[in-house]
Amino acid sequence: MITKQIGVGKAHSKIILMGEHSVVYGYPAIALPLLTIEVECQIVPADKPLVFDFYDPLATAVYAALEELGKKKEPIAYHIISQIPPKRGMGSSAAVSIAAIRAVYDYFGKTLSDHLLEILVNKAEIIAHTNPSGLDAKTCLSDQAIKFIRNIGFESLTIDLGAYLVIADTGIHGHTREAVNKVAQFEEANLPVLAELGRLTNLVEGAIQTKDCQAIGQAMTQAHTCLQAIGVSVGQADHLVQVAQTQGALGAKLSGGGLGGCIIALAKDQASAASIQAKLREEGAVNSWIQKL
After folding, report:
1. Integer Cα distance of 58 and 250 in angstroms
2. Within the chain, how many helices (H) and strands (E) appear?
3. CA distance to 67, 119, 133, 139, 198, per residue, from 154 (Å)
């Protein structure tokens, strides 16, 4: 087996377009790969084998890869270079896991199939997150949008809208597990709102096919109102959504589990996206990105 002086693996980020929280109750969710927001993992030789912290998704992913290769005692170290902020709903742990597993296989000169990569990433994600849906891993492994329905599975979606998505980081760590528990605590009262979120996600899927950006934007804004109603938004997210709308966004909403994280805004063209991005930064977004749709 060939070893290199350095093994390199990369992966990209993701964001939820529609369907957060309602997806837990059987409605669809749509996630987008963010191909230009990347993480790189480097595997290098070391003096001694790694000591693994199984609360760390990165360590868990490296362990899963080494175990599969029968190399758990190999003396290596890893380094991460990431553009993806953690705990923001952007798939940081899944992307880091993918990059790490690719880097381990690259270091040992072994071929890694997409199928085995997905198995190993999900193994790491299960240890890190107990019961992940697999949506983060699937989207971080894909160059197409992904539709997911719990207990049914995944489906690729083609998006070619000529529009732009602005992603803005509130600077507040998201708390997905706490948010999911909060929604479940008041499940009976929340069910009509979750059903509305499901309806809006279906509407957006149809509007993607007809390239109706106005309808997508309106549904996004309505979805944000729903997410506020079930108590998973925060003041800074609400503020940035309002700023984006005032600046001419077709629609804007919280993205991900909530209680922090990111907001997304739909812009009709690149100039509008740049204007929205600049205003969001002025108004407190700690980081932001523009993604062509």
Report:
1. 37
2. 9, 9
3. 28, 15, 10, 10, 16
The token duo for 19 is 């369907």
Burial profile 63-97: b = 16 or more Cβ within 10 angstroms, e = fewer: bbbbebbebeebebebeeebbbbebbbbbbbbbbb
Q: Output the pLDDT for position 32.
A: 97
Structure tokens belonging to residue 168:
């803005």
Length of the chain equals 293
Secondary structure (3-state) at 252: strand
Q: Give the span between the Cα atoms of 179 and 125, in whole angstroms.
A: 19
Q: Residue 64: pLDDT band by 50, 70, 90 thresholds?
A: very high
d(CA 178, CA 184): 10
253, HSE (Cβ side, Cα atoms, 13 Å)? 30
Residue 273, judged by CB atoms within 10 A of its CB (0-12, 13-18, 19+), counts as buried
The pLDDT tens digits of the residues spanning 73-95 come to 999 999 999 999 988 999 998 99
Angle CA 80–261–222, to nearest 5: 140
Q: Is this prediction's pTM over 0.70?
A: yes
d(CA 232, CA 175): 9
pLDDT of residue 1: 55
Q: CA-to-CA distance for 96 and 98, rounded, in angstroms?
A: 5
CB-based contact 91:98 (threshold 8 Å): no
Helix (H, G, I), strand (E, B) or coil at 71: coil
Q: Return the biggest CA–CA distance within the chain.
A: 59
Cβ-proximal residues to 131 (8 Å cutoff; 6+ apart), any chain: none
